[in-house]
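Please, structure for the following, as tokens.
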Amino acid sequence: MEIFLIILIGCFSGMVTGFTGASGVMVVVPLITIFFKFPIHEAIGTSLVVDVLTSLVISRTYFKNDNIAIKSAAWVAASSVFMAQIGARFSDKIPERGLDSGFSFMLVVLALIIWRTGIKRDKNPVDPFDLSENKSPIWRLLLSILLAGISGFMTGFIGAGGGTNILLILLFVNRFPMHKALGTSILIMSLTALSGVIGHASLGNVNLLTGIALAFSAILTGIYCARFASKISERSLSRLMGAVYMILGVVMMIINWKNS
């Protein structure tokens, strides 16, 4: 029964990451806490292992479809990875109550924004280091570094939010097209999660075998979903992401309400 549940949880986690670029942590943490009685800190550390392996493999699919622009987002990656290590060091002080509710509310709001307006961007992303002719003002670079640092810290601290936050930064601050934002955010998420895993492992909060087992099944569904997402239109992808975020947000709200 445990193996069957691990496979199901992993598959759902891979689907979420492949379609939306969101961290599988938001799926893995509550489910392994409920079904396997993992302590919250160990659940976070273990779920980050899933993020590392799943996101790294899924990002290869986006790379093959030319939907990763890591050079233009190197500053986001560096800030996020560095702060994830710091966030992991503070994880023992995590305030459990209220965090899940706030995150689920954010997902619902994000779903409504993406569903109603869609995401339309230029064909090529903005290079934050190109400050000539007002193509990318300095505030864009500074804001992106700041927000990426906050996102990385929260990834290390509570596990969740890294992929979603990075996606938002690339979309709304750096003006990436949806597909490139999605592919690039998934790659950055894998690097950020690795930093978080190192921090949590040093505190003894990682169950490596469970993490690898979850990642294996997540990779299978994640690759398929990423291939599908890479081929559909920007408008369709926006609608799909909006629907998935809405479902996740509502489900998380229901779980939090039942556990309160």
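The mean pLDDT is 79. The chain has ten helices and no strands.
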